[in-house]
Each structure stands twice: as structure tokens, then as C-alpha cells.
Design a protein that fits this description.
The protein has 204 residues and is of the alpha+beta class. It has five helices and ten strands. The N terminus is likely disordered.
């Protein structure tokens, strides 16, 4: 699989606790979304525009493929688990790198494209040793989730997704399987109730 250059992303401020989709925010599948590609998925939005559509990567779908098999040299840079994550059903041959920049280079550097705050995408065509000094967390994704213009807005109106603020550790958690539930629980209120919903609503 050939690395995918970082997508061209619009500038964005750090995520805020709004219910508006924007780069850097999270999409959490609501319990009613039972599409196997996105059931209980947590998606980091990398780009969003009403006319351009949206693009993101699924944060809680670890794969069995070691990063070193796909991208030799990056296995010592990525966060545990050091496997390629399934970023979504679109273009599974494309590879996207999401990183957390070190505080002293939070404004970015050559070879990275800021997303929001210290979160950025990294150009995988550059050597890992060249990129590593500027980052303190890295995750590699195969494929992505994509929406055409207006499509995500329609899915939001239908109740398929929660839009929630992200925290810096979310894309790089060492325990991705429980991420969906943990994010809902930390919101409190009605979101915490959804975290305890049965895997299939028909079971309720």
C-alpha cells in the first residue's frame, strides 16, 4: 500500500464542547447506528466543510497488521498497540498518519499539516527519523471515513452521530476497544446513559 499524502485541511481552532462538526472534534456513533463499518465507532474529524464534505479516521478499530510490515521504520514511533488501525471503509489502500505535536512545535513544522490544536497529519513519504523529533504520539490508519457535501449533516439530523470534543490522548489510546464507552461516560448526563446501552438495541 502506498502512503497517502496528508489531506488538505482547513484551519481550525481547538475543539470546543459544541455540537457542531469541525476538524478536531469526535463523531461517536449513536447506539442506533448498527452499520458494521461504524457500529460504536469513534471518529476523529480531520476535515469538515458544508460544501467540501467531511473526512475522518476511526480511532477504535485496531488491526492485526504490525506497522513495521507496512511502513518499516515507523514501528518505533507509533503509540501502542503498534498495529495499523482500520481508519474506515474508504480507500483501504490509502495510509494516513495522525500525530500529536510536541508542545514546543505546536504551530507545526515542515511535513505536517495541523488539524486542530496539537493534532496534525504527518507526511509518510518522509523518513520516520525526520518526523519523530516533532511528535510525541503517532497512529497509522489504513483507509478513512468520508462524506460528500451535505451527507454528514443528513446523518447528524437522523441521529446517527454524537458530535463531541476530543482530548489529546483520544487518538492514541492504548485501550481502543473501550474508547466509545469511556468518552460517553466522561461527558456525564444523558451521554453516560448511552454508554450502558446494549450492543444491539433489539436486546433492550
Amino acid at each position: 500500500m502506498s502512503p497517502l499524502p496528508p489531506p488538505s485541511l482547513p484551519p481550525s481552532s481547538a475543539p470546543t464542547p459544541s455540537l457542531l462538526p469541525r476538524a478536531g472534534n469526535l463523531l461517536l456513533a449513536t447506539p442506533s447506528l448498527e452499520d458494521p463499518n461504524f457500529h460504536r465507532s469513534v471518529i476523529l474529524l480531520l476535515a469538515y466543510g458544508q460544501e467540501e464534505g467531511a473526512l475522518g479516521v476511526v480511532l477504535n478499530r485496531a488491526n492485526d497488521v504490525p506497522v513495521g510490515i507496512l511502513l518499516p521504520g515507523w514501528e518505533d514511533v507509533v503509540s501502542e498497540p503498534a498495529s495499523v488501525f482500520v481508519g474506515g471503509p474508504v480507500q483501504r489502500s490509502a495510509v494516513i498518519c495522525v500525530a500529536r505535536l510536541r508542545p514546543d512545535v505546536a504551530d507545526g513544522f515542515d511535513g505536517c499539516q495541523p488539524v486542530a490544536g496539537r493534532i496534525a497529519t504527518i507526511d509518510l513519504n518522509r523518513p520516520a527519523q525526520e518526523m519523530a523529533p516533532g511528535v510525541d504520539r503517532v497512529r497509522i490508519f489504513s483507509g478513512y471515513a468520508g462524506w460528500s457535501a451535505g451527507q454528514l449533516d443528513e446523518e447528524l439530523e437522523s441521529g446517527s452521530w454524537f458530535v463531541l470534543p476530543s482530548e489529546l490522548d483520544d487518538p492514541f489510546t492504548s485501550e481502543p476497544d473501550g474508547l466509545w464507552e469511556r468518552i460517553l461516560l466522561r461527558q456525564g448526563g444523558r451521554y453516560a446513559l448511552y454508554a450502558k446501552a446494549p450492543p444491539k438495541l433489539s436486546m433492550n
